[in-house]
Design brief:
Layout lengths: L1 H52 L1 H39 L3 H12 L5 E3 L1 H4 L2 H19 L6 H12 L5 E12 L9 H7 L2 E14 L2 E16 L9 H8 L6 E17 L10 E7 L2
Parallel strand pairs: 1-5
Antiparallel strand pairs: 2-3, 3-4, 4-5, 5-6
Helix pairs in contact: 1-2, 2-3, 2-8, 3-7
Length: about 290
Amino acid sequence: MNEKNEIHLNSKKEQPETDKNKSILASTKQVLEDVSDHFKQGLEDTFDYLKENHPKLVKLFSTIAENWQKDRTIREKWDLNNFSSLQSKAFSARGYDVAAKLLDNFNKGDGSPVYLTREELGNEKLLTELEDENVDRFKNNTFVGTGSKESQKVLEEIKQAKDGTTIRIEDSWDIGRKNTLFDKANIDLNLALGSFNTHSVFEGTVTKEGDKLHYKGTIFHNIKDKYDFDPGDTIAYIQKTMQDKGYNKPFMVNVEPKIEEIEGWVTIGKDGQLQEPTITSRKTRK
């Protein structure tokens, strides 16, 4: 019985102490807020006074603050560029020459474009595969598939025209190549361009000869890629930071185009529909 009473009495004794602590905390918080407001107001009043009575002193303080921030920015940019330059040297040491060249250009920071020859870019087998796929699209889409509205309109006109009629025609196709980090055969290309598009343009003529159309023209294969760093890029975090802060600018990479002369025939079926084209000649222009 005595033990129970003792516990009960102790619990009653602690309660006022807790309320007292809460009261102290609330009072302290209010005092700090009041001091903070007074301090803030005091700074604003002081600054207003200095602006009115000592403008040269205010200007001096502003210049010091600006120079401090500028020096900090310069140091940060210098550090990031140094790190990125080390990455470029590592690329060169491993034989990734194109990746090193483009990263060096990015480190310059002025956004000037870079021009690469096909020999310099290398990977001729991969580039040719992409170009061949675009030529297949030319065969299967421009004449018998889903070519541009302009080319389809021209073909409808030429089918209805008299023999010997020649009309100019133009069409284009794109094929994308995604960056594949696990593609060990093309590491330099992956590091240099990542994902890119091959843009192919056909410019030529179509002549009606009986129930056939004779096409002849030039295909220009172009690779143009913007060298930049995407949002969320964790692998190139340093370069993305440099880009996001405006220290270094993205730039365009232009690869020497491949030009091909091509010609062939398309048969006009009895139903008026065009049959699959045949290619009789396809040569690379030297």
